[in-house]
Amino acid sequence: MIPGMGAVATTLVAGVEAVRKGIAKPIGSLTQMGTVRLGKRTDARSPLIKDFVPLAKLDNLCFTGWDIFADNMFEAASTARVLDRDQLETIRPFLEGIRPMPAVFDQYYVKRLNGSNVKKGKNKRDLAEQLRADIQAYKKVTQRQVMIWCGSTEIFLKPTAVHQSITAFEKGLEENDINIAPSMIYAYAALQEGIPFANGAPNLTVDLPVMQELSRKNNAPITGKDFKTGQTFMKTVLAPAFKARMLGVSGWYSTNILGNRDGEVLDDPESFKTKEESKLSVLDFILQPDLYPDLYKDIYHKVRINYYPPRGDNKEGWDNIDIFGWLGYPMQIKVDFLCRDSILAAPIALDLVLFLDLAARTPELNDLGIQEWLSFYWKSPMTAPGLYPEHDLFIQLMKLKNTLRHIKGESLITHLGLEYYD
Ligand SMILES: NC(=O)c1ccc[n+]([C@@H]2O[C@H](COP(=O)([O-])OP(=O)(O)OC[C@H]3O[C@@H](n4cnc5c(N)ncnc54)[C@H](O)[C@@H]3O)[C@@H](O)[C@H]2O)c1
Q1: Residue of the nearest CA to atom 12 in ligand 1?
Q2: Can you tell me which atom of ligand 1 is nearest the CA of 342?
């Protein structure tokens, strides 16, 4: 169930159908292509993840969602212009069969958008009830459900009193509290219905005590926010490498040009602020300037996103990194990533849906609320209160795979390796 059926969502759905029809491969998806090593290096046991844990099969996935534009998924995919027209034609009837339900939307939270496929209600509580009715109707035609927000980035909001408990939040829904954004209403509806929720955008949404309470109460797993796709993905690969070698960083300037609807929304300063916070936080957590003041205390970190229509979904992300080595001698690294935003995001969205569905069915995981083992996919992973997030991509991968080993009763891999020399 997808609130926001734009570029990422249509690329996900079209991609799953193309894979099911055997006309493309699920490149970039750990659940579909990844393996997990079991036992010793000498055991030669490395099953595919999808054969090791009981994930839902692609053939069994169904899609629905909400959008403020009433276009069916073929029309929406054509507008997004991520996939080739010829490829879309091969799956056209399937995509035309999926039409978004009217959305819960308020332009106050996404200034650059205006659509007419929108629910009306006497207050936010009424809108939440309408979403719950949509979910209940979908429950009648499917066995299990997961909700993944692929909607636009909302304006920057901070947690307030209304987000602190279920009682306060429900009162806020009744009173149309301005601090309750549409994405929170979707999350509330999903968690009340006992279905897992993932947030592809950097909005606050589930990063709130009320949602954590609901998640645990209803065994509906939640996890981080903002898909870690292009520039931040590179950052969380490079920064740990500098730290591993004790190389200093004095500056990191990141800029992007992109021309899709996401870029247009992020051109609004209030939505950009939400994204900026999410993109900025990773370096501090990885480099730990408090532990390594000589190396990282004075780092100047800047992130820019510029809306540039000619590029469409094909973003260009530049990074200029000023590092320094032995005796403080400076060096520079330039990264120019000509990526395709939704091509990177779609497999992440797929994996999250499959892993959250697995978590909801796994006794060791489903009452935890936050699924920290899915940090791998996020710019802003969620953690228990007071715990700092793990951003290093390879530690995140180890955490994810060890969690799979753990739930299947296999021994964890520590990479100690002394046993090979007994
Ligand atoms: N593609 C990436 O690499 C990437 C990475 C990280 C995060 N994201 C985030 O994922 C989200 C989706 O990106 P996209 O490129 O598909 O954007 P998009 O603009 O193509 O699609 C977003 C869709 O959400 C809809 N929408 C907005 N508010 C809604 C609401 N309240 N209810 C229902 N629908 C609503 C819009 O009408 C639009 O169709 C964005 O927030 C983006 O920042 C994308």
Answers
A1: 150
A2: 1
pLDDT tens track for 205-238: 999 999 999 999 999 999 999 999 988 899 999 9
**Could you give the CA distance from residue 295 to residue 283 in angstroms, rounded to a whole number?**
13
For atom 2 of ligand 1, the residue with the nearest CA is 341
pTM: 0.95
As a whole number of angstroms, the distance between CA 166 and CA 162 comes to 9
The residues near 175 (Cβ < 8 Å, ≥ 6 apart) are: 123
| pLDDT tens readout for residues 354-410 | 999 999 999 999 989 999 999 999 999 999 988 989 989 999 999 999 999 999 999
The answer to whether the CB of 106 falls within 8 A of the CB of 85 is no
Residue 253 buriedness (CB in 10 A; 0-12 / 13-18 / 19+): middle
Q: Ligand 1 mean position to 260 CA, how many Å? A: 10
Strands 316-324, 248-258: pairing kind:
antiparallel
- Burial per residue of 37-61, b for 16 or more beta-carbon CB atoms within 10 angstroms, e otherwise: ebeeeeeeeeeebbebbebbebeeb
Residues 6+ apart with CB under 8 A from 366: 219, 221, 359, 360
